[in-house]
Amino acid sequence: ADALLILTDADAVYLNWGKENQRPLCQATPDLLKEMQFDAGSMGPKISACCRFVTDCNGIAGIGSLQDGSAILSGEKGTLIRN
Asked: Do the record's keywords include Plastid (predicted)?
């Protein structure tokens, strides 16, 4: 597979989720994401799976809402993870 797409109720991965300064993360690398903290009960496992896929399969991965599936992989919506 060239791509992994995880569809969820959130429209993207957010930095500072639930705080006044929260902001969506549009693009990231596995190395960047490994330096950040995400909830183990929600976004953490999704990000870990995407990072493993990108690193092990040399592909791309995206996380976002069900309605934005094709736009996530093109980088228009959601969060796109690649090396």
From this structure: no
Which residue, among 17, 52, 21, 54, has the nearest Cα to 38 in the 3D structure? 17
What is the C-alpha separation between 63 and 43, in angstroms, rounded?
Answer: 9
Strand order in the sheet with 60-65: 3-8, 60-65, 79-81, 27-28
Neighbours of 2 (CB within 10 A): 8
Total count of domains within the chain: 1
Domain that holds residue 24: 3-81
Is pTM beyond 0.90 here? yes
Q: Furthest-apart CA pair in the chain: how many Å?
A: 38
